[in-house]
């Protein structure tokens, strides 16, 4: 997935399990506990928690999403 400069996605929660790797650029990954800036090679696994994304300068992510269902 490629995101342009200034792109953001509000805090949300999905039922999928998402594995994301930053391929190019930088992206801010936010959860309730705070925000981390991720760069090339950084990975994040999201499973049933609230999170948000934003990028000041644009980025490219490799994302694998596995369908899920809350128990």
From TrEMBL:
Species whose genome carries this gene: Streptomyces brasiliensis
Domain of life: Bacteria
Protein name (Swiss-Prot/TrEMBL): (S)-ureidoglycine aminohydrolase cupin domain-containing protein
